[in-house]
Write a structure and sequence with these properties.
The chain folds into two domains: 223 residues, Rossmann fold (3-Layer(aba) Sandwich); 81 residues, Tyrosyl-Transfer RNA Synthetase, CATH 1.10.240.10. Helices cover 55% and strands 9% of the residues. It has a three-stranded parallel beta sheet. Helix 4 runs parallel beside helix 13 and helix 9 packs antiparallel against helix 12. The radius of gyration is 22 Å and the shape is globular. The structure holds tryptophan. The site of tryptophan has 12 residues, from strand 1, helix 7 and strand 4.
């Protein structure tokens, strides 16, 4: 039991999941969760999503879409504790307690907050905090609570989250210094950037660049999207470089070794871009089709999904309720006899 590493990560429930998420986060996380010496906690960070969305329907739908996507992609709820943040009251409770040991100055240094004030500065807005919500400011504390409520050993995240993990460690260390060793210091496991996929314009695939290929397009829209991928203007028959080619990079993320080598040879022989796109389309469609079918089944049986999440929350709370009771005890919040 003690040998088992606890690996925890959260997914903010905003936006539509795309191929970059699939190759860079979803499939690797599912693969890692099959590792027998880890116990994995994976949750939908729905309270985090409120910082960006104040549209209830959108908040609700995104949460559903993301939960359904992970299951459709093969997440096994028997192997992973899969839950919604909002079903774990201990996280909210801990967030408050942690905010009482966290210096405001530490939060002033958070990238997301600094970026928001920098925009005001650039626009010469006199109040640099104009439009900044407390949710955005407190975000790193909520994220620390997500992690520390489970005393996670490792937290796989993208490089953009590195600072949040450092803050979670700082907050945990401060708490331990004041109240005794309650928390483990979580270790960030930064996902390698080599797996980052390009979007249809060749830049990193990202919601903010508006260049994503969503996972759940129907066949026709998927093909249309692939046809939009930017290429150079080399004619068929002219040898092409597979390095730095968006089509090739996308293909490589999903095809087998043998298939990749075959396409490489065809590039050298001067494949036409139209044909290369058809090959990419067939490969993606073959991978997405079963996922799309499972997604539809989940969409038609929302009660099943709800049941999975409720069960996940019960399992998760077996851990978090124990930790929060240690925390309360440590800070002196407890019954009188
Ligand atoms: N902030 C993370 C992101 O945007 C999501 C997240 C919320 C998270 N809470 C977490 C990740 C706790 C790891 C651990 O990607």
């Amino acid at each position: 039991m003690a040998l088992e590493k606890r690996v925890l990560t959260g997914i903010t429930t905003s936006g539509v999941p795309h191929l970059g998420n699939l190759a860079g986060a979803i499939l690797p996380a599912i693969e890692a969760s099959r590792h027998q010496f880890t116990s994995s906690f994976l949750f939908l960070a729905d309270y985090h999503s409120l910082i960006k969305s104040q549209d209830p329907a959108m908040t609700h739908n995104s949460s559903f879409e993301i939960a359904a996507s992970w299951l459709a992609c093969g997440l096994d709820p028997n192997k992973v504790t899969f839950y919604r943040q909002s079903d774990i009251p201990e996280i909210m409770e801990l967030a408050w307690i942690l905010s009482c040991v966290t210096a405001k100055g530490l939060m002033n240094r958070a990238h997301a907050y600094k970026a928001a004030t920098a925009i005001n500065k650039e626009k010469e807005v006199p109040d640099l905090d104009k439009g900044v919500l407390m949710g955005l400011f407190n975000y790193p504390i909520l994220m620390a609570a997500d992690i520390l409520a489970f005393n996670a050993d490792q937290v796989p995240v993208g490089g953009d989250q590195k600072q949040h993990l450092e803050m979670a460690r700082d907050i945990a260390a401060r708490f331990n210094y004041l109240y005794g060793e309650v928390f483990k210091l979580p270790e960030a496991v930064i996902n390698s950037e080599t797996g980052v996929l390009p979007g249809i314009d060749g830049q990193k695939m990202s919601k903010s660049y508006n260049n994503t290929i969503p996972i759940f397009l129907n066949k026709e829209s998927l093909l249309k999207m692939i046809k939009k991928i930017k290429t150079n203007s080399l004619e068929p028959g002219i040898p092409k470089d597979s390095n730095n080619c968006t089509i090739f990079k996308l293909y490589k993320a999903f095809a087998s070794e043998g298939q990749i080598q075959d396409l490489e040879v065809r590039y050298q022989k001067g494949i036409g871009w139209g044909e290369a796109k058809d090959i990419l389309y067939s490969e993606l469609e073959s991978k997405i089709e079963p996922i799309r079918e499972r997604y539809e089944l989940i969409r038609h049986d929302k009660r099943h999904l709800e049941h999975i999440l409720i069960e996940g929350a019960v399992k998760a709370r077996e851990v978090s309720s124990k930790i929060i009771s240690d925390v309360r005890e440590a800070v002196g919040i407890k019954g009188f006899c």
